[in-house]
Amino acid sequence: MRRGSHPSPRTSTSEWVPLTASSSVMPMVAGSDAHQHQQLQDQFDKPGTSTTPVPQEQVPEIGQAERVEMADESRWRAGEGNFRGTSTSPPVAAAYPYAAGGSTSYDPSPMKRFLRSKPARNTALVAFVLIILASLLHATQPEIVDHGYRVLSNAVYRNMGWKEKQEMVSLDARLRNLLDRPALDQWQYETLCRHGCPFYTYSRNTYFYHDGKESQWEAIKKDDVRRYRNAMISHLKDVEASGDHLVWTPDYLKDRGGSVKRGIILTGGEGSTLKRMQIQLDMLRNVLNCKLPIELYHFPDEMQDPETRKFFTDNFDVKLISYEGKRPDGKSWHIKNAAFITSDFTEFVYMDSDNIPLIDPATHFDSVEYKESGSVFWPDLYKDHPDNAIWRILGRPCSDEHWPAETGQVVFDKRGNDGLNLAVLHLANHMITHQEMYGDLGYGDKDLFRYSFYALGLPYQQAPKIFATTGGFQTQNGDDSDEFCGHSMIQWGTTPWSKRHDAAFHPEPAFLHTILAKHRRGLQPDKLFSHLMRPRIDNISEPTLVRTPYEFTGDCFKIFLKGTDGLPESENSMRDGQGVLTESVESVMGGLDNPVYVALRDLAQTFVDINKEH
C-alpha cells in the first residue's frame, strides 16, 4: 500500500480490495470523471461480468474535490489531483488545493495533530478535570446565583470557621433547592396532593378555617408561587444584612451570654390571660417543682401595674420582657415567634397561657424525640387539606405522613439540625408577619413552623401519641348529660431515653390544653376535667387512626369510632384492635396518690370562676 493511502474501515490492509457493482464507492462527480465512472458502472452491469478483485493499485484515485461521505464508512478518501489522466477543473482546484495535484499524504487539522501527542492528551485531560472541579466549587459557594440573591455576604463568610461555613453552605443549598422546585398551577398539582392527602382522611377531621378557601388557593398561580419563594429568601437576606444570625453558631452563643441555657417561654399580659397564667405558674413552681428559668413576654401596654409585676416576679421567679409591635387587629400570634428568636434560651419549652403542665417540662429535653433533631410538636385535631396552595409554594405534595401541629406547647433547640433550626424560626417569623400572604394558608402561627421545616427540607419530630379529648358528662352550660362533652386536649408526654426500646411504654399526660374550656361559662367544677376519650391504639403513626376521628358540634368535641370495635371477641369485629376508650382522668393519672391530679382537681373551681368573670 502506498504511503498516505487509507483503507476503508470495512477492509483489511491487504493489497486487494473487492470491488463489485454493489460497492458504494461510485461518487457523483462532474465532467469527464463522471463519464468514466459511468463506463465502469456499465461494465459491471453487463451479464456475466466478473467480480474478480482488482489490485489496489488499479483502483482509480478520487480527487479531493470529488470526495463524498460514504453511508457506511467513517473516513474520507484523499486523491492525487487527477483521475486517469483527467485534470481537475480550475474552480475545484482553487477551492480544494489537494485536488490540484498536491501531496497525497493525510494531513489532519492542527488540533488532531496536537492530540496525537501523548503529553498533549494528558495536558488536555488535566485541563478538563480542572474545569469540572472549578464548576463544582463554584456551585457550592454561598450564593443563590440563578436568582440574584446572596444569603450570606462574602465578608461574613470569610470570617467563619470551617463548620460554620459548612452550615451556611447547607442553608444556601436548601434555599437554592426551594427555588428550583417546580412552580405549578392548582390543576397541575391537584392529583398528586389528593393522592397524598385523600379527602376521606381530610373529611374525617375537617378544619373550620379551611372552609371556603378553595377559590383563594386556586387564585395563586405559578408566578405567585415564585414570588412567595423569592420573598422568603429576601427576608433571610434582610436578617443577615441586619447583623442577626441565620444559623446557630458559637458566635451566636457569645452574643447571648456565652453558655447554653434552658428555660420556659410564656406570652401574655392582660385580663383573663394573666389569671390563667397564675394557675400555670403555680403548677410549675409549687406542684411540679420545676427549676427552669422562665421568661414572660408581653406588649408595652400590658403588665403596667407595679403590684402585678411584683406578684409574678416575687412569687414565681419570672423575668418580664416587654416586646414592641402590638398589632391593631388584636391578634398577638407574632409575639410567640419573636420571643423564640430573641430569647437568650438556646433550648426552651413554650406553653400557651391556657395550657396547664402536668409533668416537669424539663423532662422533654432528655426524650428520644427531642434528641432526634431538636424539636417536638404535638398533634392538632384536624388534617391537612390537599388543595391548600401552600403545597405548591413549598414544592412539596400534601402528605398524611405528619399530623398538623398545634403550638400550645413546643420543645425547641436552636442548635438542632446543625444550627438550621434557627433559620426555621426566622422563616416562620416572615410568614407570621405577612398575613396578607399566609392568612388564607393556615390559622395563626401553629402551621407556620412545620411549613418552614418543609421549605428548608429539614426534619422535625412529632410527639409519640395522638391527643385525648378531655372534659366530662355535662353540657357546655353545665347541665348534667349522658353524653361526653370534650373541651380540652390532654397531650401525652415524650419517650424517656431509658424507654426507647420498650414497645409497651405509654407516656403519662404532660399538658392539658384548655382550648375550648376557657370560653365556657357555668361548667361544673367537679366535672370539668373528670374524663377523657382516646383511641385504644394511639401511636401517632397508627394507620387505624383513620377509624377514630373527632366529632365537633361547635360546643364540644369527642372521639368516635367508625365501624365496629376491633377486639377479637367483639361482635362483628374489625379485628384490627382499634376502638375508643372513655376513662376517668383520676385513674389515668394515678388517683389521689398523685399530687398533680389532686392539684388539677382543686384548681377546677378557680378555672370556672375566671370564666365567669370574663
TrEMBL record:
Assigned protein family: Belongs to the MNN1/MNT family.
GO CC terms, sorted: Golgi membrane
Pfam families: Mannosyl_trans3
Stored PANTHER family: ALPHA-1,2-MANNOSYLTRANSFERASE MNN2
Compositional bias per record (Polar residues), positions renumbered to this chain: 8-25, 37-55
Entries under InterPro entries matching the protein: Alpha_mannosyltransferase, Nucleotide-diphossugar_trans
This protein's UniProt keywords: Golgi apparatus, Membrane, Signal-anchor, Transferase, Transmembrane, Transmembrane helix
Record keyword Repressor present: no
Keyword Transferase on entry: yes
Residue ranges of the region described as Disordered: 1-56
Membrane topology field: Single-pass type II membrane protein
Biological process, per Gene Ontology: mannan biosynthetic process
Subcellular location(s) per record: Golgi apparatus membrane
Name used for this protein in its record: Alpha-1,2-mannosyltransferase
